[in-house]
């Protein structure tokens, strides 16, 4: 089976830090796999995601995503690669407050002709479908996202990540602001859309009740050798 994510000999250290945040000898995620990533705060989960999306580069080692060595790409090439191939649900949402709900969700289709092509039609219609599945009232679709509750903004961020069937979906604590019913709808839609597009899903969460829904779980405290005294 093809690897969608493969890290080899990776080391990353933040500026002004005396020790590396991540030391990972090897990590592999296969195509279509749904992986649950767990670990306490400070164990390097967000740092790992920043490497997988090409936002940051490792100081040592190789980060391959969808067969592409991200370390060999320029900053601009990494931006394009991310826009075409990765749907990212940020912990802080990263929505644009001056755009309305539909405009935020369809944003990836404007930056990536590849994602627009996968929509197979009107991106606004597809955005509306996704938002309905996530229980966002239709009366909210033309509202500025700044007028929405935190939980509603989280659902908008999820729809934006899913639109255009990206090959890799990364979710960083995506259910933290949702109540039980909306959390269930969110997970069901996320898994359904990932299966439909044969997308690989990396899901970071502190919620242990969600772990059984995934193919495999990874405890980053066991994988990451940073801070381990030999």
- Tell me the Rg in angstroms: 17 Å
Strand percentage: 15-25%
How many helices? The count is 9
Oligomer class: single chain
What do these coordinates show?
- This protein has a 5-stranded parallel β-sheet with strand order 6-7-8-3-9, with helices on both faces. Strands 2-1-4-5 form a 4-stranded antiparallel β-sheet, covered by helices on one side.
- It has helices at 45-52, 75-85, 101-105, 107-111, 113-119, 123-133, 150-162, 180-196, 220-223; strands at 3-12, 22-30, 34-38, 60-65, 68-69, 86-89, 168-172, 200-204, 216-219.
- The radius of gyration is 17 Å and the shape is globular.
- It has 9 helices and 9 strands.
- By secondary structure, it is of the alpha/beta class.
- The model has no long low-confidence stretch (mean pLDDT 91).
- The two termini are 34 Å apart.
Short note summarizing the structure:
With 230 residues, the chain is of the alpha/beta class. It is built from nine helices and nine strands. The protein has helices at 45-52, 75-85, 101-105, 107-111, 113-119, 123-133, 150-162, 180-196, 220-223; strands at residues 3-12, 22-30, 34-38, 60-65, 68-69, 86-89, 168-172, 200-204, 216-219.
Features:
alpha/beta; four-stranded antiparallel sheet; 230 residues
Fold topology:
Elements: E1 3-12, E2 22-30, E3 34-38, H1 45-52, E4 60-65, E5 68-69, H2 75-85, E6 86-89, H3 101-105, H4 107-111, H5 113-119, H6 123-133, H7 150-162, E7 168-172, H8 180-196, E8 200-204, E9 216-219, H9 220-223
Parallel strand pairs: 3-8, 3-9, 6-7, 7-8
Antiparallel strand pairs: 1-2, 1-4, 4-5
């Amino acid at each position: 089976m093809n690897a969608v994510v493969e890290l080899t000999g990776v080391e990353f250290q933040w500026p002004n830090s005396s020790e590396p945040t991540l030391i990972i000898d090897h990590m592999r995620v296969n195509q279509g796999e749904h992986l649950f990533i767990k670990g306490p705060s400070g164990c390097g989960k967000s740092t790992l995601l920043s490497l997988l999306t090409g936002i940051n580069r490792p100081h040592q080692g190789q980060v391959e995503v969808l067969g592409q060595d991200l370390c060999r790409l320029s900053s601009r090439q990494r931006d394009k690669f991310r826009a075409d191939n990765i749907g990212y649900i940020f912990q802080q949402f990263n929505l644009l407050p001056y755009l309305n709900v539909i405009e935020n969700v369809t944003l990836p289709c404007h930056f990536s002709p590849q994602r627009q092509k996968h929509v197979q039609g009107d991106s606004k219609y597809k955005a509306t479908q996704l938002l309905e599945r996530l229980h966002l009232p239709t009366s909210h679709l033309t509202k500025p996202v700044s007028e929405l509750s935190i939980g509603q903004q989280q659902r908008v961020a999820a729809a934006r990540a899913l639109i255009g069937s990206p090959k890799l979906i990364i979710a960083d604590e995506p259910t933290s602001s949702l109540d039980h019913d909306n959390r269930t709808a969110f997970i069901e839609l996320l898994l359904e859309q990932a299966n439909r597009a044969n997308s690989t899903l990396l899901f970071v969460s502190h919620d242990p009740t969600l772990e059984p829904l995934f193919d495999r779980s990874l405890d980053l405290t066991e994988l990451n050798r940073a801070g381990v005294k030999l």
